Amino acid sequence: MKAKLALEDGRIFEGRFFGAKGIATGEVVFNTSMTGYQEVLTDPSYYGQMVAMTSPHIGNYGVNRQDQESARPWVRALIVREAAEFTTNWRSRIDLDRYLKQRRIIGITGIDTRALTRHIRDKGAMRGAIVPFENSDSRAIELAASSRAMKGADLVSQVTCKSAYRWRKGFETGWSPWKAGKYGKTRNKNEKAFKVVAYDFGVKINILRSLAHFGCELIVVPAGTSWKQVLSMEPDGVFFSNGPGDPAAVTYGIMNAEKLIAKVPLFGICLGHQILSLALGARTFKLKFGHRGGNQPVKRLKTGTIEITAQNHGFAVDTDSLPGSCSITHVNLNDATCEGFEHSSLPLFAVQYHPEASPGPHDAAYLFDKFMQLMRDHSH
Amino acid sequence: MPRRKDIRKIVVLGSGPIIIGQACEFDYSGTQAIKALKQEGFEVILVNSNPATIMTDPKLADHTYIEPLTPDFVARILEKEGADALLPTVGGQTGINVAVALAESGVLDKFSVKLIGAPLSALKLAEDRKLFSKTMKEIGLETPRGRFVHSVEEAMSAIEDIGLPAILRPAFTLGGEGGGIARTKKEYISKIEKGLDASPISQVLVEESIVGWKEYELEVMADHKGNAVIVCSIENIDAMGVHTGDSITVAPAQTLTDKEYQRMRDAAISVLKAVGVSTGGSNVQFAINPDTGRMVVIEMNPRVSRSSALASKATGFPIAKIAAKLAAGYTLDEIPNEITRKTPACFEPMLDYVVVKIPRWTFEKFPATAPILGTQMRSVGEVMAIGRTFKNALQKAMRSLETGAFGLGGDAQAKDIETARLMEHLEVPNWKRILYVRYALQAGMSVDEISMITKIDPWFLAQIEQLVNLEGRIRAFTLEELPEGLLKRAKRWGYSDQQVAELTGSGEDHVRAKRKKLHIEPTYHLVDTCAAEFESYTPYIYSSYETEDEGEPTGRKKAIILGSGPNRIGQGIEFDACCVHAVQGLSEIGIETIMVNCNPETVSTDFDTADRLYFEPLTLEDILNIVEREKPAGVIVQFGGQTPLKLAMPLKRLGVPILGTDPEAIDLAEDRERFGKLVRELGLKQPRFKIAYGARQAEEAAREIGFPVLVRPSYVLGGRAMAVVHEEEQLARFMNEAAEASGEHPILIDRFLEDAFEVDVDAVSDGERVIIGGIMQHIEEAGIHSGDSACVIPPYLISMETQETMKRQTRALGLALKTRGLMNIQFAIKDDEVYILEVNPRASRTIPFVSKATGLALAKVAAKVAAGYSLKELGIVEEPSPVLTSVKVPVFPFSRFPDDDTLLGPEMRSTGEVMGIGRSFGEAFAKAKEAEGQALPMEGTVFISVNDSDKPNVLPIAGDLANLGFRILATAGTALYLESHGIRSERIFKVNEGKPDIVDEIAKAMVNLVINTPLGKKSYFDERAIRRAAVRHKVPLITTLSGARAAVDGIMAQKDGRIGIYALQDVNRGKTRGKKEIKRR
Which of residues 52-91 of A touch B (CB under 8 A)? Predict the structure, then answer.
């Protein structure tokens, strides 16, 4: 069935439905990862967005049980050049088309995703609408323009867990990204696990797996959980997760972070990184089209080495606004934006990118290790 | 850290002649490395024996040695130059082997030369399978189960554990030579014997068969700070069991989840670190069990490779250039990405398109070898195509191959093929298998069934199934009725107009017209390394059928240069070198250059070479599209060999201006009748000839001319089906073959001039003046394809008077044909008479060799002439006269085709060439033989067996050899003859005459040189056994008397210690012409 994608600035792309059919609206963003569409679909950080994959063939290896980043897909729609009609992979359980149908996620295929990407790159991320082809262009554009803007939107409350839960599971046998490396061995067997409270702003399962793998027993709490409640759990450390939307709109998160600073070691990833920076008084801003992909080079300033990182963010921390008590630890080599900072005296650090990868490279595992070390140093 | 300061002079090793498994990709990588190092201010010295390369251009390196790539020669060069570093990692396995030998013998230490690019330990570890397996185990990675064996006995016990089928991999061989799959015990024993033979350390790895597993390669780059990036993932469509060089491959990998891909990425990086590659590029191969996901490491190359050339072209990430800078001390983050300009090279390219590579084979040249594929590489070239989808890229790649098809499908249907044949061609990997997959789908087999038989991942088969289904739908319509949507889809899926025409029973031009009317036109896109995330500044372009165009053409004056497509026997790197020179020449006169080619191995498809690069098939449709878009002043067809020449007339007819010699003149030279008339008018001589259509007429013609005759089909490459026919009884067979190869084109029958000398003359003309570039005398007598014949410049046995005659005739023909550009003439000299055999007003195979020998870059000059300059304006008024003697020797792939005879004939079979330079013919010849890998012996035993008519002439040769102290072995007849003329020799049995026979002696390494001229039919098998034994045991083999004479001259030069080393820049110093500043127009 023919479909069209309209952007709020009037640009129209033609394609066909796959997955569910109907109308979808949201911010249109592109992701350059060549593998990992299943992780992208199920990453809560994409909530409210329609994701275009720049890689032309999507769906080739189907959908499996292990690679879910949460219990369900969160994207508003998946935009592809060519959806696979045939699935191949020994772990695949269902093909992408059927998966999207079952989960009522709209897909559009046959789109000139390169033209779309170039458009967004030049004009910036913008809202869009996918509609059945018989709808007029003007109606589609109107739908796009009237959908919710990303700036100022608190989407965290929509994706966070309803109640707290415990998490202990590491990786399935054979699938630990860090089995062969030097990380993940720092905890000696007699050491007791660190108790970590993880704020769920839309957390990816692989972050939980990674923290567990490195020696944490987690209590995952809803985003609105107050700092007092968190402290009452007597955690060794608190983790601020990734999540969707504008960090500045997550005022409760920022407030709780502010209170937790200096009381307990803190670690933030992505939205968590932004929330921690806001709690320290820094500013965030919306990037023109964001960083979404698995090839972003990040320089670790302490060693001068480069990590190839997985990223997914539309907002960034304004480097100049960070207080003097903080120092930048990581910088993006492409556009020099802030990729990580730490506090010079307090046990607190955060990164903008995704050391848990999934999808993406495993170059930054040491950050989990660093969090363990921080907690070890502050345990009394 | 900026570049290292502790080194100043770097010696770069090339890879030598083009052979199967090591082709012009190393010219590309070496050229890039040299440019990068020069840019950094290093003094660069190059050693490479292959003159048909861009890297050996005297303007590229500071000192260029066209010398044998042996430890001895390289050591002499290191010493003479006082070099302080050696970079072997851009020169293939040849470079690595030389470097390892020099390091181990202490030469590098002695001259204080640092090995850069990769440490010795890494080079050795990667090649030593035993150590490699152990190292992999240590870092928690699996390799296939296996054992190393050094003898047949060990091999027999190993197979008890491992079981059949088993894979055999001899250590330290090129492209898997001597390896293979053994399915039965008998096969196992015979292959073990061959493998132990092929391995210089007599070691073979016997491995569990992982045939049928999925195969992947990752290209990794690392720097000394420990940063590592994956440049590209490549997935093989042909499963494990087919050499990766013979596989159809796809980039990026299509069937891996992120978890599997990242696991492989981690493994690749840890392999690099474990092997000890701290800087540079490497490639790591993996296999994955499709049912369980079990991953094993197959091998790694700690150097740039064929795959890294492909990866560079596929992604726009110039691996060799960056590897060179890393070797010079930089880190990845300090090097900019030249495509985006604003981002660093320390990142991983993201592709929003699909790349398909298909190898090109020439099995027809080796009829005795079964055209099946295995673990030993047999392809001689490859094409690459870029499309937005796999189907799009596959179709483009299929039509790039120039095998007569314009894509996959649109021709014969399955009904013509029997089931048994179909099943066999699906099951046993062969070079036409993809066509049989299509037939199988048409015949109604399912994707799963075909996948079970072929082990090809069903995802790829399902893609082909979509093509087959679309083909079926289109076939139901005439062109007029064909719905717009279907035509659009066909184009989006990569179908050519020609395919659509065939499917709708129409013509290509009609499809084109309909397409234009419906505004279904190609769009052009940039290879930008980043999936459009950033703006790209480098016009590296491919076509597709999308919604918007990128990379707007400029308004400058420009010319399109058509490349030569996939390498094959008869059309190789020489033509790419000419194309690159043409680009350089045109750039020098301010014309914008646009390169079109589809061969990923070449320098011409480096995005740095021309101003704009279109990575596109070389077909009329694809080129017309580019012409319409770019609106060039003209198209240049004379440098890329037959590929662009075939397009010259069609382009001209469509009103596209052709720069340089008019296609009519090219046609006139090809047209025997018209050309014969011209020769008569000019008062020149040709051997008697006739033109015939069909076998019957050809036989008549042959009888009329009288034996022996030379038979050749027209419009074929590399002397396909050419033969010298000596007698009536051979006639019918050869004529049938010729008729088949010719198709509807005529067969040419020439009187064959026995015992004549052949001469090649290359010249350049502006229409008013003809400058002779060089006169090359063939060393082998007439009747051997000029590409397979060794030759020497200047001629050493031709009188000045005869040379003058040839020059005069060349000038007359050049002017008569109104040549504007290059021309090549083949002459034969018999009894001091000069005969014209052939004239080609275009670039010839020998242009790079002549240019190196004389210092005059002919192709560059010719490009400027084609663009409208006169030779006088260019300052080219004097003919070059070489100071030293240069010998070109061809290199053959016989060891890959063990069942085919090695005798030379009119059909070309060499894949590459080497050059030797010397003060005398002997010196130059000896060096060329050494570079070929057939070093002439200084002492020892020579085996001589010649036919009766050669016997008188072998006497002086045998006499000289005896005087030089050689022991002479001969078969009965030859021995008796030598004895009766006072030359002592020892008699040795022929095969089947008794034991030990000559083959045994060769196998025992008791023979150092074999001279064997063909005896004729009766002893045919005996002789073949001798020649094959010589090839197998790497004993220099000479099959012509003139070759033997040259060898004796070479041995004498060696014995006298007259072997020097010469830098090209010194040889032709002050002799380079055309340096005068040219006024731009």
Answer: 54-57, 60-61, 64, 66-67, 81-82, 84-91
